[in-house]
Write a structure and sequence with these properties.
alpha/beta, about 60% helix, three-stranded antiparallel β-sheet, about 775 residues, single chain
């Protein structure tokens, strides 16, 4: 190896000649590690032109002028003279001898640790690049560059399962009729890099697919590139591979063999590095170590981290795995992705295709069950793979959830050849799915999103007692149930301990899917009746959507759902009168091929008028008149606008709806003239002329709105005053939502006989006789 100058000497020279930080980095690499120009530029991530500019500045600082290669030789001569003046007996020497068989392991006793670190960092870049620069998971056809896809990760400084909270506290995350945001309660998030900087010994815990290994690889990669922990040498160890070596080497020996294989250094070199505390050790996948090897590996890790305590350590393991006690380590939990992180991941995944990214994110945002899955990086990757292939998500969402469940139950470990200990030998994969489905159905039916561990153990005990070779002793069954909970939590991530002794499914989506699976697979007439009876319960709507898509034939369930819709308004003559009016208006519109949609349109307009208060009455009447005339004149079925109006009236509680009365009246007048309805046109002209000003009294506005109502009723048969009670308005809301769900189910990827489909569609929103 050619002559090099010691790092400490070069640092003194840089300080004496007042080199800037950028100039110093070039100076140390060029003359301390004997790298050529291109290598230095590449290592620093700068262009060769920028490198040459920095070298020119260095020459000037040493009073070297002129052009050509002679400047470099003159600087070498100057440095050698300085060094000789400091210590005439010393000679610049390489700190790591050439790795030939004759001198393998020879290391200078007068070690310069700074120079040793820089050389080891440089030589280890290849192994870190090889092990950490790419990722390939699930059904990816080829590896992808980790730096191109990595999205910043957050951690929770308090482990979720150790919070002392009750079920009532956890239910505080339930937002009305919205879905549960199970991970948002009292989260103390920090960025992963902040945690890595703050704690020298860190245990990263996380659910399956939470991104633990990805975070570890990215950190090791950035360390090797000098962007973080640039004064340390990264050492990356996959613990499963280390534990599986037949000779069962000590961890130090294993690392030394690794370094030797990549021509980095030998055991003496590594010991020098570790004794000076200049390494950061990344130990990945403690939970993946086989049970037979676990005790040996744990003892070795503890011994190593205690002996070389001054280094940095990061270990990853799954939540719910065995309790690994490393007394000096701080434990943090990898947090779920937030919406911004989901968006950033998608933008990186679909790089160069902004329209694809925008469509993907819109689809995710519009579907809360899918959005829940996307908070897990592994499942988000699955969603991106599916969307990449088809340009959309499957119409039958149960197929997507089935695949997500398979990833966690089977594929994630199988793809990486990980064999985990089977806690309960007689619980096959099929039985495990059946068990999960039974627990999901029981808890969902009871309205339990969170459940105590003792109750969960009871559900599992009731299931496994009927398996072959099951224990008959209740205490043994209870112990088995507890072990199964931990196995499902750590191996598959489908149960999550949300607080001490309180569990839930990792995603409400999986609880709903498994509950629907249980109801469909074990379904009978009573089950179908139960499902249909839930058509007005918003909590059950996703179960119903899933169930119709999973059934071999959904005929019976859809017919029962239609019956329950009709029963809602049976016996209420006023509401039946409304439905009669809806049918009359729909038939008068003369759009026979879309008659069901036209009925829905007029029912929504009638509901909007019924919900309107005196303050908004004029605005609502004008807008409904425009929509009615637009349908009859142009065949524009603005169903979405009608829905928006009705929803706004439900939620605005009398506030300004943002409607434009003047514009709507002008449009209505224009339509009336085009349709040659002179009486309506004259009435509207007079109403526009006499429209009160904003300063006029409420009485004047109310009288004018009543005149507008009279004209819309007389000329268009729209705008009647239904005078419904609050109870009737609530029934009408339930009826509309139930029918909308029924239509969604009919339009989904479900199998239903054509005759049944036609019979249901033709009788939608009709009065019952």
């Amino acid at each position: 190896m050619s002559t090099m100058f010691p790092q400490k000497f070069l640092m003194r020279m840089a300080q004496t000649h007042q080199l800037s930080a950028d100039q110093e980095s070039v100076f140390l690499l060029r003359f301390g590690e004997n790298r050529d120009d291109r290598e230095v530029a590449s290592f620093l991530g700068i262009s060769e032109e920028a490198y040459r500019k920095r070298m020119g500045e260095i020459y000037r600082k040493f009073d070297i002028s002129g052009k050509g290669p002679g400047k470099n030789n003159r600087l070498l001569h100057i440095l050698q003279n300085y060094l000789d003046a400091e210590s005439p007996q010393s000679e610049p020497t390489s700190l790591i001898a050439n790795q030939s068989p004759s001198n393998q392991g020879v290391v200078s006793l007068n070690i310069d640790i700074e120079e040793l670190v820089q050389q080891l960092r440089y030589r280890s870049r290849q192994i870190i690049q090889e092990r950490c620069a790419t990722m390939r998971v699930l059904d990816m056809s080829h590896p992808i560059d980790l730096e191109n896809i990595y999205t910043g990760t957050d951690v929770l400084e308090k482990i979720t399962s150790r919070r002392r909270l009750g079920i009532a506290d956890l239910l505080a995350t339930y937002h009305g009729r919205d879905r549960i945001e199970m991970g948002l309660l009292n989260e103390d998030r920090v960025s992963s890099i902040e945690a890595l900087n703050r704690y020298r010994k860190l245990m990263l815990l996380g659910k399956p697919g939470a991104g633990k290994t990805t975070l570890l690889k990215y950190t090791a990669l950035k360390c090797s590139q000098g962007e973080i922990f640039s004064d340390l040498v990264p050492i990356f160890v996959t613990l499963r591979q280390y534990a599986g070596v037949e000779t069962q080497p000590r961890l130090l020996d294993y690392i030394a063999q690794d370094f030797h294989a990549y021509n980095i250094g030998d055991e003496l070199t590594i010991k020098q590095l570790l004794q000076h505390g200049r390494a950061i050790l990344f130990w990945d996948g403690l939970d993946e170590v086989r049970e037979d090897d676990l005790h040996r590996v744990l003892e070795d890790l503890r011994s190593f981290s205690e002996q070389y305590y001054s280094n940095r350590f990061v270990i990853t393991s799954r939540l719910g795995a065995q309790e690994y006690v490393f007394e000096k380590f701080t434990e943090v939990e990898v947090a779920n992705f937030r919406p911004l992180q989901i968006s950033q991941f998608a933008q990186r995944w679909f790089a160069g295709n902004s329209r694809h990214t925008e469509l993907f994110l819109r689809k995710v945002e519009d579907n809360r069950p899918i959005q829940e899955l996307a908070t897990n990086p592994l499942l988000l990757t699955l969603l991106c793979l599916v969307f990449d292939e088809f340009g959309d998500f499957p119409t039958n969402r149960s197929e997507l959830y089935r695949e997500g469940l398979d990833v966690l139950l089977k594929k994630w470990d199988a793809k990486r050849n990980i064999e985990r200990h089977q806690i309960y030998k007689n619980l096959s994969m099929q039985r495990k799915e059946d068990l999960l489905a039974q627990v999901a159905c029981t808890t969902f039916y009871q309205g339990d999103y969170f459940f105590r561990q003792v109750d969960l153990e009871r559900y599992i005990t009731d299931y496994i007692r009927n398996l072959p070779k099951a224990h008959t002793d209740e205490e043994a069954l209870q112990l088995d149930s507890e072990a199964i909970i931990k196995a499902i939590e750590s191996q598959h991530g489908l149960f999550v301990e949300r607080a001490k002794g309180i569990y839930s499914f990792s995603h409400l989506t999986f609880q709903e899917y498994l509950a629907a699976r249980e109801l469909v697979y074990n379904g009978n007439q009573d089950t179908l009746t139960l499902l249909a009876s839930k058509i007005t319960d918003h909590r059950w709507h996703d179960i119903l959507r899933l169930a119709v898509g999973m059934m071999r034939s959904a005929d019976d369930l859809l017919q029962l759902m239609k019956d329950y819709c009709d029963r809602l308004l049976i016996g209420d003559s006023q509401l039946q009168t409304l439905l009669q009016w809806v049918n009359q208006k729909a038939e008068s519109a003369q759009v026979p091929d879309r008659i069901q949609s036209v009925r829905a349109f007029y029912l929504t307009l009638g509901r909007a008028i019924a919900q309107s208060d005196p303050i908004n009455l004029a605005n609502v009447l004008a807008r409904t008149l425009v929509l009615d005339l637009d349908l009859c004149q142009n065949r524009n079925l603005n169903l979405d606008l009608a829905f928006d109006l009705a929803r706004a009236l439900e939620t605005k509680d009398g506030e300004d709806l943002g409607l434009d009365l003047d514009l709507d009246l002008s449009l209505a007048l224009e339509y009336a003239q085009e349709m040659q309805e002179p009486h309506l046109a004259n009435a509207l002209t007079e109403l526009i002329a006499n429209c009160p000003d904003d300063a006029d009294s409420d009485v004047q506005w109310q009288n004018w709105a009543n005149d507008l109502r009279l004209q819309t009723v007389n000329h268009r048969n729209i705008g009647q005053s239904w005078d419904f009670t609050p109870h009737q308005i609530e029934l009408l809301r339930q009826y509309c939502n139930a029918n909308r769900l029924l239509v969604e189910c009919l339009e989904s990827d479900c199998y239903v006989r054509q005759s049944v489909r036609q019979a249901i569609e033709q009788s939608l929103l009709l009065p019952t006789t």
